[in-house]
Amino acid sequence: MRLLERDHPIDVLQTRAERAAAGHGGTVLLVGEAGIGKTALLRAFADRMSERLSERMSMPVLWGMCDPLSTPRPLGPLRDVAGALGQAVTASLRGSAAQHEIFAAVLDALRETARVLVVEDLHWADEATTDLVRFLARRIDALPLLMIVSCRDTVGADPVLSPVVGDLVSTPGVRRMQLTPLSRAAVAELLEGHLLDPADVHQRTAGNPFFVSQIIDQPDAPLPESVRDAVIARTAGLSPEERHRLELLACAPDGVSGALLGALDVSAGTVAALAATGLLDRSGRGVAFRHEIARSAVLGAVAPGSESALHATMIAALERIGGDASVLAHHAVAAHDVRRILRYAAEAAGESARAGAHREAVAFYELALPHVADTAGRADLLEALSVELYLTDRLDDAIAAREQAVALRSDLADTAAVGAGHTAISGLAWYDADLATAVRHKDAAIAILSGTDDTRSLGFALANHSFLAAQQGDTAEARAAGTRALQLADGDPVLHGFATIGVAVARLLDGDVAARADLLAARDAGLRQHHDDLATTPMSNLCHLDVEQGRFDDAEESIASALRISEERDTPICTMWQLGVRARLRLLQDDWPAAERDARAVLAAGKFPLGRLWPRLVLGVLAARRDAPPDNPDLDELWCLVDRIDNLGKIAPAAAALAEQAWILRRPDPRLTDARVGALLSRTAEGGPATLQAWARRLARAGLQDLGPVVDGPVAPPRGPYEQVLAHWDEDSAEALLAALPVLDDLGARAVGALFRGRLRELGVNSIPRGRSAATRANPAGLTERQLDVLALLVDGLTNAEIAARLVISPRTADHHVSAILDKLEVRTRKEAAAQARRLGV
């Protein structure tokens, strides 16, 4: 079928390819409904590119597919194109390389020559593939690469893929291109020579090119009631053997390679007969259905009860050619082959975990688990599943899986494994903000393992005890337990690294800044040993303490390093914590928009309870300072979290936030009468005297100075403009209060500004500057409403002509608006304008 009404998208791709060939890479997200012609468009573009290979631009097109398997194969599109990217990429996929090592090899390969990389059907992608797409999109500016990613436009309802697409479209250099249905005129043009009513066909198909093509290919048949009927009608001329082969191919969502065709004994003549139906496309030596709709229709018409035999035939053929474990697991499930489900699901889970596709690893382990009969094997799977559940932010399920494994190990009288399980549950419970459970399992682990000969497992239990003691501010106990764990390490770098963490945190709490080096050394050990927890945990603690103890310059470096490692290791729980710490840092630095962005990004990323602590504090404090709402759910959740973990380093800033809100609202908060708040000053705080002094000052402003004694020692100077402004309140002079108003207005601290203005009126000051208007506050760049509309489309990557069409204005008017926006934002390029808009929250 001819390709109509697609010239503009192909021209856009051509222009982007030429820019990429010149070293200015970019990404295009091609979006549209099923059957809208995404693949047809991409093939037409690829044909145009191949025609130009002999001309001035040499730019091969690499094609990677995401397949509609029940659980996707890890990095499937990359495996499709790995051979064209060189030996380093191929070797990293075949070996035990971690995700970041695979991605680094891909990045190096893509620097070598100009290419187009197509990643088709992202809506079927595994987690590792979406990570790779985002990884490349963030670095593509410096690559000679055009990456085209296609997906259906129904991903908004997909809680997994929707954030991925949202991340892509907000990345500078990414162009979103929506394919629209054919117009009635285009359908009429396609129907020329056929005795069909264009208006009726357009109405029945809604302009979907694939649906139209099915009707055009059967012009003499009655108009089918459904596309399924149209597809099945095209198989009417096949022999029984050919129909069987077509049904067999329909079992393979990922297409059938030339090698697999041979193993299935599908002859060239049969392939030709099947291709003549128009349902299949030849690709190299293999074949694939033109559209998933067609494949599903053929498979849905298979005689009841015969589909399992088809999948069994596919398994036998795939085993002969060494097929992917994930594909074999898919067919094993459909064939109800328990033995192969166990074998291939476990193998595919391991491959997925190594590739960083942790959600897929969970799916494969959960696929295998119901079929495991022996107790030891089931415990092994549950323990492996627990790790993957933890990494995918399913802590409740991770704990439940470990508890089941502990029960099974108890039945086997495997005492050491039971003790190790309690240690694992203790760590998971801490991340779940459940101190009581963490301590209970920590004590059980030490009691059990102290009576065994498994000194390594005992060492890990003691290291966990040291860590929890340090988190509670019991530095003496943390040092003692950690020292015992270090003695048991006996050259084991992983155990030595974990034992170091609790001791180093305790030393930092006691004021020994040299302990920072020990946390960095533990990180390095984790990197050398390819142990993700050990590579990330020391950095999570280091960046947190750098912030709380006021080492802001060090914190910038440690947070950046921590986030880089967590992203490379694909540990989203660690990333959430570290982004929350950065939100806390930005709040203390008075960069409120950046603090709010980080806090909201964490809350949107997952449910990790401990990781929500700093974002809730940031958002709760900002809400109090800006609007003083009578109800503040962020601070309410914050207090619930610190109540569950009973951690001094977290109670102190939480109490400071509640005290600040009580001052702003002029309303007492009964939570500040908690005995732990009054006892704060008798214990070691993570932030030291500065944290406690800030807390005490807030109590005093709220009229609660009697809750705790005055902090001994010199008073630390306020850390930033906002804290300095609050010091003006304490001076209680008209001059100081007036000097504070511009700072509060610039920060957007409307509620606090109202307090200062009220106090000035009480002091008899008549000429009090008014704050900025609501419109100006909501739009700090000073843009008009129409300019805000234009800027939003500019951020989405639309050209001036596209902006004009979308807003129904002339191209000249759109040009004027864009120029005015650049002037007001004080930037030179559209890309800089988009970045500035995100920073301003416009």
Defining traits:
Rossmann fold; mainly alpha; five-stranded parallel beta sheet; 842 residues
Q: Care to give the gist of this entry?
A:
The chain is mostly helical and 842 residues long. It is built from 44 helices and seven strands.
3D structure, described in words:
- Helix content is 65%, strand content 4%.
- With 842 residues, the chain is mainly alpha-helical.
- Among the domains are: 7-180, Rossmann fold (3-Layer(aba) Sandwich); 185-223, no CATH class; 647-714, no CATH class; 717-771, no CATH class; 775-840, Orthogonal Bundle (Arc Repressor Mutant, subunit A).
- It has a 5-stranded parallel β-sheet, sandwiched between helices. A two-stranded antiparallel sheet has the order 6-7.
- A hairpin with a 2-residue loop joins strand 6 and strand 7.
- Helix 26 (493-509) packs antiparallel against helix 27 (516-528) and helix 31 (592-605) packs across helix 32 (613-627).
- The chain is globular, with a radius of gyration of 31 Å.
- It starts with 6 loop residues before the first helix and ends with a helix.
- The relative contact order is 0.05.
Give the SSE map:
Blueprint: H1 7-21, E1 26-31, H2 38-51, E2 61-65, H3 76-85, H4 87-94, H5 99-110, E3 115-120, H6 127-139, E4 145-151, H7 161-169, E5 174-178, H8 184-190, H9 198-205, H10 209-216, H11 227-233, H12 240-250, H13 258-263, H14 268-275, E6 280-283, E7 286-289, H15 292-300, H16 307-321, H17 325-335, H18 338-355, H19 358-368, H20 375-391, H21 395-411, H22 415-431, H23 435-449, H24 455-471, H25 475-489, H26 493-509, H27 516-528, H28 532-548, H29 552-569, H30 572-588, H31 592-605, H32 613-627, H33 633-645, H34 648-665, H35 675-678, H36 688-701, H37 721-731, H38 734-747, H39 750-762, H40 774-778, H41 785-795, H42 800-807, H43 811-825, H44 830-840
Parallel strand pairs: 1-4, 1-5, 2-3, 3-4
Antiparallel strand pairs: 6-7
